[in-house]
Specification:
This protein is of the alpha/beta class and about 240 residues long. It contains seven helices and nine strands; from the N terminus they run αββαβαβαβαβαββαβ.
Length: about 240
């Protein structure tokens, strides 16, 4: 009786991003048009500065303070010369209203409160093998003002030498109340010059590096009341980060 050999179990492939899929490119184009119709041209009035600072190529993370559900489409919608892949909480998959957006845009859902290795691998793939940017809310949730961030974006930047462009968002905290009154919401978006980690940082230094980036983000938020625990800009340092000229 011959011995049967068991084939090695194959690892599930990493899900590719939009630039690898014609269907996803088409879906993203449709959702951009939908966003322009329902948000940018009808419910908000956007003033933006510094979009030209966003690199046209190279590993790039867009980091924004998260005030409202409309922040991701607004922050990404102002950039017409490059596509992006958002990272969002896994709970978005539990609502039919948002699950289809995550699916068709090929966003990366992440499990909060744990090290989600699948999400990490997908995020690294985006930065290392595509020209998509990563869109990240560093706090992992919406807050009324800047709060303590998760350190995942520092890990991604450290492993890929990615540039980080911070986007200060102001005004969207009034979006829901203005929508009920059928008023357009004035919104200000400030895109920073890109920064990068000066050197390879150790795991023990992630928190200090994350705080430096958060102070840099705070400096680009037009409304000082939204800077939260990073309001005192005199405490900002640049030991771990530098501006990319």
């Amino acid at each position: 009786m011959s011995e049967q050999t068991t084939a090695p179990k194959k690892t599930a492939p990493i899900q590719l991003t939009g630039e690898n899929s014609p269907r996803t490119r088409l879906a993203r184009r449709f959702m951009r048009l939908l966003g322009a119709l329902l948000i940018w041209r009808t419910t908000v009035k956007v003033t933006h500065h510094g979009v030209q600072n966003v690199p046209r190529q190279g590993a790039t993370i867009l980091l924004f303070n998260h005030l409202s559900q409309v922040d991701p489409p607004l922050v990404g919608g102002m950039i017409t010369f490059r596509d992006l892949t958002p990272i969002g909480k896994e709970e978005l998959l539990h609502s039919p209203l948002t699950a289809w957006m995550v699916h068709f845009w090929q966003a990366i859902p992440v499990k909060r409160g744990e090290m989600d290795m699948h999400a990490l691998r997908r995020a690294l793939y985006v930065l290392e093998h595509t020209n998509d940017m990563l869109l990240v809310a560093p706090e992992g949730h919406r807050y009324k003002a800047l709060n303590e961030p998760k350190e995942g974006f520092v890990l991604l930047a450290a492993k890929t030498n990615a540039m980080i462009v911070t986007v200060g968002v102001s005004g969207t905290q009034h979006f829901k109340s203005n929508l009920k009154r059928l008023r357009r919401t004035p919104v200000t978006l400030n895109y920073s010059k890109p920064i990068r980690l000066k050197r390879k940082v150790s795991r023990q230094e992630y928190r200090a590096a994350a705080d430096e980036v958060m102070y840099y983000l705070a400096a680009h938020i037009a409304d000082p009341a939204l800077r939260g625990m990073y309001s005192d800009l005199s405490k900002a340092t640049m030991e771990y980060i530098e501006v990319v000229e």
